[in-house]
Amino acid sequence: MKYLIVGLGNKGSEYENTRHNIGFKVAEKIAETLEVSFNTSNFGWLAEGKYKGRKVFVLKPDTYMNLSGNAVKYWMQKENIPLENVLIVTDDLALPFGTLRMKGKGSDAGHNGLKNINEVLQTQNYARLRFGISADFSAGRQVDYVLGTWNEEETEKLSERIETFSKASLSFVFAGLNNTMSAFNGK
C-alpha cells in the first residue's frame, strides 16, 4: 500500500520558521523518523520511505501554499495513491496552539491551501491533520500573524508538538484514520 503525506507550507528561507509552515516542519520530522531525505522533484521536495511495510511518500510542495492542489494531484496520479491514503498536514487558526485535530473530510475553514486542494481534487473528502496555531492577533493582522515566527512560549513547546504530529501521521499510515483520530485528537 502507498500513502502520501503532504506538509503544507511556503518555500523560501523567509517562511522557514513561520506558523504557516508548520506542515513543512511536521513533514521533516516524519522523514527524519523514517530515516529518509528530501530530494527536489516535480512540484516540491519528496522523501520516500517505508513504515511497517507500507510505502510512504512525504511531500513538501514548492508551489506556495495557495497552489498546493496541483502538487497533491500530481503525486497521487504518478504513484497511483488513492484519496483515502492521502493526509494533508496544515496549520489552523481556530485551534489553540499545539492542538491536534485529525478529520476525514471537511471544509477549507478559510485556509487557502486547503481551498486549492479542494478545487483541484474536486472533493473535500480527504484526511487532514490540523496543527493549532491559535488566533492571537489584532483585527486585520491575520496575514502578519500566520507568516510570523513563533513566540518564546510556543518555541519551547514546538519540538514536542511536532513529534506528536509526526507520530499521528504515521499512525494514519498503519492504524488508519478512525483509530488515529481516537488515539490522537485533542492530544
Describe the structure.
- The protein has 187 residues and is α/β, with parallel strands linked by helices.
- Helix content is 39%, strand content 22%.
- It has helices at residues 22-34, 68-79, 112-121, 142-146, 152-175, 177-184; strands spanning 2-7, 39-41, 44-51, 54-61, 86-92, 100-103, 127-132.
- Strand 2 and strand 3 form a beta hairpin.
- The two termini are 27 Å apart.
Set down the secondary structure blueprint:
Elements: E1 2-7, H1 22-34, E2 39-41, E3 44-51, E4 54-61, H2 68-79, E5 86-92, E6 100-103, H3 112-121, E7 127-132, H4 142-146, H5 152-175, H6 177-184
Parallel strand pairs: 1-4, 1-5, 5-7
Antiparallel strand pairs: 2-3, 3-4, 6-7
Core attributes:
single chain, 187 residues, alpha/beta, Rossmann fold, 7-stranded mixed sheet, 6 helices, 7 strands, 39% helix, globular
Question: How many E-type strands?
Answer: 7
Number of helices: 6
- What is the ordering of alpha helices and beta strands? EHEEEHEEHEHHH
Counting helices, strands and paired strands, the structural category is alpha/beta
Strand residue content: 15-25%
Mean pLDDT: 94
Radius of gyration: 15 Å
Q: What name does CATH use for the topology? A: Rossmann fold
What's the helical proportion of residues? 25-40%
The biggest beta sheet reads: 7 strands, mixed
**Would you state the CATH class?**
Alpha Beta
The CATH superfamily title: Peptidyl-tRNA hydrolase
Order the strands across the largest sheet as they lie in space: 2-3-4-1-5-7-6
Shape: globular
Q: First CA to last CA: what distance?
A: 27 Å
Total discrete domains: 1
Question: Are there runs of 5+ residues with pLDDT below 50, and where?
Answer: none
Pfam family, one: Pept_tRNA_hydro
GO biological process, one term: protein quality control for misfolded or incompletely synthesized proteins
GO cellular component, one term: cytoplasm
Organism: Chryseobacterium culicis
